[in-house]
Write a structure and sequence with these properties.
Protein name: DUF72 domain-containing protein
Oligomer: single chain
CATH topology: TIM Barrel
Pfam family, one: DUF72
Distance between the termini: 30 Å
Strand order of the largest sheet: 1-2-3-4-5-6-7-8
Organism: Streptomyces musisoli
CATH superfamily: Protein of unknown function UPF0759
Largest sheet: 8 strands, parallel, barrel
Strand content: 5-15%
Number of domains: 1
Amino acid sequence: MADILIGTCGWTDPALLGSGWYPPGRRDPEKRLRHYAAHFPVVEADSPYYALPGPRTTTLWAERTPPGFRFDVKAFSLLTGHPTRPSALPPDLRGHRRDEALRTEIWTRFAAALTPLRDAGRLGTLLFQYPPSLAPGPEAEAFLRAARERAHDWPFAVEFRDPAWWHPDRAARTTAFLRDLNATAVAVDTAQGLPRSMPGNAPATTAHLSVVRFHGRSPHWGTGGKEDRFRHTYTEPELRAWLPRIRALAAATDEVHVLFNNCCGDAAPRAAETMRTLLGSTLPHPRPAEREPDRT
């Protein structure tokens, strides 16, 4: 049975910082991360989605966490086709065309920044979350394949936001495509019955990792602002219903990451704690990560 690691999507969200979850004396950057890592063995680093980190930042992340701790790092927005403000780009790249050459250069800098995490055994996976505008089809598959070729020797997870990728008529093709890329399919929990509701049935597509992200069940999923989209307090029955699926993923992979993105106040760490109790997961931290083999 796989290691099941439970944590949250981010550890510095303003709503979390203001919730009181971090006790007095644990609110500067170093003590926050150390406090978080004493409670959970995995976290999603979402700040790299908004701006490229520097190697010094990721080196500090590694130094402030124990052996075996995992960072799942969200890919920079330009790499996944999301709108990207010019000011988010490095100054010397702001006048460049937004083409494959620019994405390749951004990837080179992104990978260099994350190398300290990988070298320290702290990298869980890269998370390539694609926008709802990326509908399935040959053009989208070529876009994903180009990203995977750039990141050929890195762990690579894919979350779709267009439910058509997992429609029953398409799911088998999507599964086969991700397996061919050696890419982890990210399963998600969202509100159901909405135009952009995502099914939670993404299968295991790699042997080394499965990822589940809990986004909450707000009726404003896909339409409202951040607070509206992710405001939800998970109940124990809602989480308990996921146990068979998580255990099935654990039977098929070496490691499962269960991450809570209902980032309003302390709802995410509280849900993570409840899920850990339901699954019977306990610390200590898991075995150190192994570097993926070069697939070239």
